[in-house]
Amino acid sequence: MNARQIILDAIERIAPDVDVAVLPPDVDFREEAELDSMDFLGVLTAVHEATGIEVPETDYAQIISIDRFTDYLSNRMQSV
Amino acid sequence: MTTKTDVGTMFTMPSLGADMTEGRITEWLVQPGDHVERGQIVVIVETDKSDIEVEVFEPADVAELLVAAGDLVPVGTPIAVFEPVDPRRATTKHTAASRDEAPDTADAPSPARTPSLAPAPTPSPSPHAGAAAAHVTSPMIRHLVDELHVDPRRVQGSGPGGRVHRADVEAAAAASRRPKVSPRARRLMSECGIDPAVFDATSYVTGDDVLARASGPRRPAPAVCEQPSKADRMRTHIAELMTRSWAEIPHFHLAKRIDLGALTERLAEANEARALSDRVVPGALLLCAAARAAAMVPACNGWWVDGRFRPADDVRLGVVLSLRSGGILVPTIDRADEQTPFDMMKRLSELVQRARQGRLRASDMGEATITVTNLGDLGADSVAGVIHPPQVALVGFGAVHDEVSIIDAMPAIRPVVHASLAGDHRAIDGLTGSRYLTQLQSQLAGPLLEELS
Fold first, then answer.
1. Rounded to whole angstroms, how far apart are CA atoms B451 and B342?
2. Which domain holds residue A16?
3. Nearest to A23 among B182, B268, B349 (CB)
4. What is the pTM of this model?
5. Which residue among B181, B324, B349 sits closest to A15, beta carbon to beta carbon?
6. Which of B133, B334, B318 lies closest to B241, judged by CA?
7. Which helix (H) or strand (E) holds B259?
8. What are the backbone angles phi and psi of residue B15, rounded to the nearest 5°?
9. Is A15 on the interface with B (CB under 8 A)?
10. Considering its fold, how many domains does chain A have in total?
């Protein structure tokens, strides 16, 4: 499965009221989807379950938008 | 929750919170003849606040269900009869012991099954019998309703007696298709009174789009719904509680700005070394600090009843959880002052997960001795709260954010949180409240900081 789909599935699982298919890819998705820190941790946990990849807190700044999160995750998946 | 009789154990409608007087059985998860284990969820009860999963505390066999799904009964009404487990099948020491203590019933007269306790509740015709929501009985259909985000009130049942089939739900979902909107956009629409129909149905609507439209066409006033939805009932419940609080309780509010520089630094270090599932968010630390401060300043921890303050023996922390769909749930964390930050985080995650699914457990609904509202990292900077009666204090936290502070006579940018205390002036004074906030601050600066390493 591609990185973007994994991320979208994770967001949808934590926030079922969000229509992820049309979530703008270039904005701060935490703000747009109203994900607080607990929700965000839930998204990262779901991504970890799907890929085995853990995002350290120090990398949070790199994954603010869906696009940037996708780039980040693709790179990490390739280097595994 | 249970009453021993000579024929078995009466399982009664539990009180799930001090203000609950009645509950509706949503769904039985067991049938007569089933064996239930300790901790097993046997029934789902709907209260004004939420659906609540009720578990049993001892193994038993289900003898009879006395109240059908859909019926509303007062707290304390027997709803089922459980037979104590056959000692040969008993799996825990606890059960064996309670069997031994049970009176020998061999020569006791055998009265009819507690007739005074268990009048068969007459199924009164529901005033809302025509409404479809009452007929969404199958868990599968309810799941579908949730999955498709369909308002159950808008589903027309085509089956016998208005029973809802899968196709009915799908039809309702198709009928309610609207432009895609983000949660923030949806909230802003409702706040600004903007009709979602003004947006192109094929586009995605963000919060900024709504703000740009905020002076545009307004939505007509919504039609009054005949049957209150779950969200409406929750709203009514919150309205009643808050109105009573504001009318009865002479509130005073105190605030203290707390520097979290050292704590967030230590937390980042701790989280770096921990797996995702063990990471702690600052909110969990704030809950720990609030609970421990309550234990140190017991005058804030208890209830105002019959004109005097009754201190509680332990700290049961009410935690306000905001639901994404609107409204709040306030589950309770027992012995919150004894939890490590890591335990607190685990408990908090469980509660958030269950609250999100709209299904708390009966064990989450103990009576709180003090309540905390934490606006979270997306929230406002500070909150002056409203006390949940009969408690005498409510602790509030705004979002952790950066501010300019004076450190060693020099300006520095530091993460801070504004902590507040709403106090019942009948029970406590400003000095007590200040002492509480000072305790809270020292918990965050001292013990909790050390426990993180």
1. 9
2. 3-79
3. B182
4. 0.70
5. B324
6. B318
7. strand B251-259
8. -90, 115
9. yes
10. 1
* CA A66, A69, A75, A77 torsion-angle sign: negative
Selected residues 333-372 of chain B with any CB under 8 Å from a CB in chain A: 348-349, 352
The secondary structure element, H or E, covering residue B83 is strand B78-84
Specify whether the CB–CB gap between B281 and B401 falls below 8 A: no
ipTM over 0.95: no
Nearest 5°: the CA angle B240, B241, B245 is: 115
CA distance A2 to chain B (A): 21
Distance from CA of A42 to the nearest CA of B (A): 9
Q: Six-digit token pair at B125?
A: 């015709």
* B325 has a chain A CB within 8 A of its CB: yes
Q: Distance (Å) from the C-alpha of residue A32 to the closest C-alpha of chain B?
A: 6
Q: What amino acid is encoded at B166 in this protein? A: R
The span from the CA of B282 to the CA of B286, in Å, is 6
Question: Chain-centre distance of CA A80, in angstroms?
Answer: 18
Partners of B182 on chain A (C-beta within 8 Å) are 18-19, 23, 32-33
Structure tokens at B187: 């909230």
- The helix/strand/coil state of B165 is coil
What is the spatial distance between Cα B427 and Cα B418, in angstroms, rounded to a whole number?
24
Two structure tokens written together for A22: 């049309």
Which residues of chain A make contact with B272, given a CB cutoff of 8 A? 56-58
> Which stretches of B85-138 are assigned E, i.e. beta strand?
none
- Chain B CB within 8 Å of residue A61 CB: no
Cβ–Cβ contact A49 with B under 8 A: no
Can you tell me the distance from the alpha carbon of B357 to that of A39, in angstroms, rounded to the nearest whole number?
13
pLDDT along chain B (453 residues), means of 10: 62 81 87 87 84 86 88 89 68 37 38 33 35 50 66 64 66 60 72 70 71 59 58 88 96 97 92 88 96 97 96 96 88 95 94 86 92 92 96 97 92 96 98 97 91 84
- CATH at residue A58: 1.10.1200.10
